[in-house]
Amino acid sequence: MKITSPLAIGATSLVATAAIRHWMATLDYRADFGDPTVDPVHPDFRGAKIFVFWHEAILLPLHLRGHSNIAMLLSRHWDANVLDKVARMMGFGVVRGSTFHGGSVVLRQLADRARTGNLTITPDGPRGPRRRLAAGCVYLAGTLRIPLVAMGLGFDRPWRLRTWDRFAVPRPWSRARAVVSRPIHVPEGLDRDGLEWHRAGIERLLVRLSDDAEAWATAGDHRAGASRVRREPSPVAAWAAALPGPAGVPLADELSRTGLVSAAGELPTATATSARLAS
Q1: What is residue 126's predicted lDDT score, i.e. its pLDDT?
Q2: CA–CA gap between residue 16 and residue 198 (Å, rounded)
Q3: Is the CB of residue 9 less than 8 Å from the CB of residue 89?
Q4: Number of neighbours of residue 267 by Cβ within 10 angstroms
């Protein structure tokens, strides 16, 4: 059923926001950061970032990192109208459009936001294919000269909706886990081959981190260096995002750290990953 009237959108958004806050507050959250300072609540956070994660797990960052000077890129399609309102109520900014199809207006809005704040994108949204990374976030990172941060997010055996992304609804009082990359530098002015190499590499990285987070959440085992995280506003992001920050590591270095690139700098075959996603 389409929800199109302003009254219905507002009422649905209020109910959804309250439900998310109460439901997600029951979970146990832990994170494994490649670099803890990429977290906007960290006191040493500096410089704007573009955070990317799969659409299916949007409830986790939506609950934890509101009021952290982050603007969310959402589709102009009607089915994002409720999410637009919910995101604002949860403490996020919103930009409506697409990095490729929204034209120069959207790029200008994103560039304006990135001067003093962070961006977040679900790169397989708004309608898939599931866990297939669109190149827009890579293009945006290179154009705006802002590092990407890949966030693998997982829940302990969540319920799955029959949607294109198999949207994850975590079980109350279960575990939620995040495995987060270091900031990744995307060179400016990439040609078509360079853009595709970065797109494929970040997609593979995001799949790997997400699988790792899901396995960790299911097992519930101790992980050295992991930290407990909670819902909290950032005390520094309002001003720290506008300061110079780390440029980020080359993608090849982050792929090597996670075992996803060969010594020759080539991405491994995706047969196993493709088979798993198709199942």
Answers
A1: 82
A2: 36
A3: no
A4: 16
